[in-house]
């Protein structure tokens, strides 16, 4: 219980709550779009650079197993999400595939929150984890879209959807940052370090206010999604997260790294996936996937998921 | 007073993700130019994927009546079923008509 409260009382989580409250009380608070876009560029590039500089000093052999495990997670999670949504969520093919694309992909902010939570406990995480975020981002969406095309659901364009995912700003900035970081190495990144490191958490706080505002709006729609979907929105992150933690420990990650991998696997994307899904599956109802990803699963992971994965990592680590 | 001639202004308001598609569409149908603005509004459709990450786009283009008709038909058949899109047309008076047609 203490760990739960400890996880909640942090500037990042509380800024998210502030956004939700501001929406509830119908405040005129809004993060202007250029500011939000600017912050997302800053955050994604900073994450990429940090991961890239760690890649520069990590031998390739050490990355291989975690990379493969992450890719497998990216292939498994959309499949389980799809069948859970079909069977227990009673969604149609197209809606289930759309939701599965979100759970197959990864939420960068959940990743960041998990890294912060692990750091607060004094544990270490592997520096190259952002590279795994990039690995996890794309395959889930592709697998989920395959379900839809198998079920005759795709009316939209595959080519455009793929273009949307692969050239979307989150992948371009993440991969670009990783590449720049890896090429330059830690020594040359010292120059940009003050800008990208010192202000990072503050920028994240403002970003979280915007996410809170958006989630607050989605929470109002939560009732319309139905009880089954709400329950699934909490069950899926636990299932995927536990799998991710277990896979992380098995792949030889530190317990802290496994917590972060769990949070990544348990998270649902709401930046890359919605745009791609809207293009590929225009008939799927955004109310389902946006409400689940942003309104239910994201807050669930922030509040309960991440502390739960920390507990799981401790147990798994002592077993293996 | 310069000569005023009548043309049609086709206005399409749509989800942001359709931006590039729509520009391509109006040009393919014969528009020689376009103007784009980010707009907000409310209509019969509920929420959409691009809603929380940006506003809608409004695309205006000045064209001949024939081109206006083909653009409207194409937008209707391609997008009305699954997307949040509206399209309307109005007569406008312009100077230098040659800029827009022909």
Q: Largest interface, per-chain counts?
A: A-B, 22 and 16 residues
Order of helices and strands of chain B: EHEEHE
| CATH fold type of chain A | Na+/H+ antiporter like fold
Helix-strand string of chain A: HHHHHHHHHHHHHHHH
Structural class call of chain B reads alpha+beta
Spatial extent as radius of gyration of chain A? 18 Å
Total number of helices of chain A: 16
Total number of β-strand segments of chain A?
A: 0
CATH topology of chain B: Alpha-Beta Plaits
Portion in beta strands of chain A: under 5%
- Residue windows where pLDDT falls under 50 for at least 5 positions of chain A: none
Category by helix and strand content of chain A: mainly alpha
Count of folded domains of chain B:
1
The percentage helix of chain A is over 70%
Describe this entry's structure for a reader.
The complex is a heterodimer of chains A (320) and B (102). The two termini of chain A are 25 Å apart. Chain A has a single domain, classed as Na+/H+ antiporter like fold. In chain A, helix 3 packs across helix 10 and helix 4 packs across helix 7 (129-137). Chain A has helices at 2-8, 11-24, 33-56, 60-87, 93-104, 108-120, 129-137, 139-150, 158-166, 169-189, 193-198, 200-225, 227-250, 255-266, 272-280, 286-319. Chain A is built from 16 helices and no strands. Chain A is an all-alpha fold. Chain B is α+β, with helices and mostly antiparallel strands and 102 residues long. Chain B has a 4-stranded antiparallel β-sheet with strand order 2-3-1-4, with helices on one face. Chain B has 2 helices and 4 strands; from the N terminus they run E-H-E-E-H-E. Chain B has one domain (5-42, 52-99): Alpha-Beta Plaits, CATH 3.30.70.120. The interface between A and B is medium-sized, with 22 and 16 residues.
Q: What structural keywords apply?
A:
heterodimer, A: 320 residues, mainly alpha, Na+/H+ antiporter like fold, 0% strand, globular, B: 102 residues, Alpha-Beta Plaits
